[in-house]
Amino acid sequence: MGLMGSSTFPLLLQVTSTNSLESFHSELKKITSSLHGAVHNIVNIDYKKRSEAEIASFDFRIKKISAYGVDDDILEEIKKFPFPFQQLIIKEACAVMNRLEKGKGVPGLASLDCHCLFRHRYLLPCKHIFHEHMYGNKLLTSDVWQMFREIFEESGFEVYESRESFIEYVQTEQQKRAEDRRIAVGELTERMRDRYWRVEETGDAERTQSFISMLEATVNPIIS
Fold first, then answer.
1. pLDDT band, very low/low/confident/very high, at 15 (cuts 50, 70, 90)
2. Is the pTM of this model over 0.85?
3. Residue 142 pLDDT
4. What is the band of 118 on the pLDDT scale with cuts at 50, 70, 90?
5. String of b and e for 165-203 (b: at least 16 CB within 10 Å)?
């Protein structure tokens, strides 16, 4: 059999190189590898976010706070709230000690109607209510604690949607001044009440009556 001529396999002569095909496969491999890496990263991120969400959910509903110097009965009631609310309430309960150290007397509250900023913003027991409960009128009964819990069990954080501490807005200068005036009046009222209790605690009825008379003479022209 003789040598085959170049005309025997004309198609083979037309394929001069396979570099283009090899290059295509190489690029495809790189892209596929990159996609696999991207998918792997997405899966890892998703897993991390899910884990963080589960931890946050656990903390919100299950985690319990601890505190030194707070009555056990009060602490047990506070622990029945979601953890973020526990943190808010416990600070107010602990703030009573600071009030005592500053010589502040019992607020003299007969109900939960305290007009301080914390009570207005968060709808939770404030330091004045705790102070009154610990050393004056027992305001925080089981029914009262249940009432506080039901506010958040029914609405959650939605209860704050219309309140200034949980919505973003820019106060006008007029609004800010009005808020400052309201706080100033609240502080003056508290100082006046503290002064009265200091006089009352001396046991001097004549001095106490003199203080009340002086207070009436000063305040009546303003409020009448």
1. very low
2. no
3. 93
4. confident
5. eeeeeeeeeeeeeeeeeeeeebeeebeebbebbebbeee
